[in-house]
Amino acid sequence: MSALVRRAGAELVGTAFLVMAVVGSGVMASRLSPNDAGLALLENSIATGAALVALIVALQPVSASFNPVVTIVERLLGVIDTRSAAALIAAQFAGGLLGTVVANLMFGLDAVTISAHERTGPGLWLGEVVATVGLLLVVFGTVRSGRADRVAFAVGGYIAAAYWFTSSTSFANPAVTIARTITDTFAGIAPASAPGFILAQLLGGALGLLLVRFLYPTVVSAASAAEKEVIS
């Protein structure tokens, strides 16, 4: 089995479980706390952040981006080649859709239920730009400063927090956005609202790339980073 097939498989499985965490915890939260949207969001954000930590720790040795924007930025930074990026992105979209279908079925819903939850407007789009810029800063800032072993905790913590400090509740992921159009639940987004979110995420990706290149022009190895910490 080729390395690319294994990496694509990891992206498919990881993105599927990520979306299961997002959608499934959203359904569970809305059922357990039907009259308290704030508590439901807290439950949803904790489950998503914790799942991200676990999934990245488990799959990082193979591949653990779970996000087309992250993969595109990896390609633009020269971390992966175009063929690999295309395969990983396709796997992420497929995994996201699979994850939603499984989550819907786990909770006794139809496999596909088109969301009626409209999420649109300049404030929400700005929220997605901010969420995506921050995510890229956390991912690549951690990795490029020689602390790749901590990226799981950084990303999980950031996403759990960004659910709360961004107006959009931090989708920050085109594959997850598309996946959430086929569940008419707490975590859903209407198909008509998805393009605006995805465009905002791509803009956030471009701005995040510029920021990463500015702040981290070179990649620090884990060994040299440890040495610097000892010296300082």
Automatic annotation (TrEMBL):
InterPro entries: Aquaporin-like, Aquaporin_transptr, MIP. Its main location: membrane. It comes from the Bacteria. GO terms for cellular component: membrane. GO terms for molecular function: channel activity. It is a multi-pass membrane protein. Keywords: Membrane, Transmembrane, Transmembrane helix, Transport. The chain crosses the membrane at residues 12-30, 50-73, 85-103, 123-143, 186-212. Pfam families: MIP. It is found in: Membrane. Coiled coil: none annotated. Belongs to the MIP/aquaporin (TC 1.A.8) family. PANTHER family: AQUAPORIN NIP1-1-RELATED, AQUAPORIN NIP2-1. This is Aquaporin. It comes from Sinomonas puerhi.
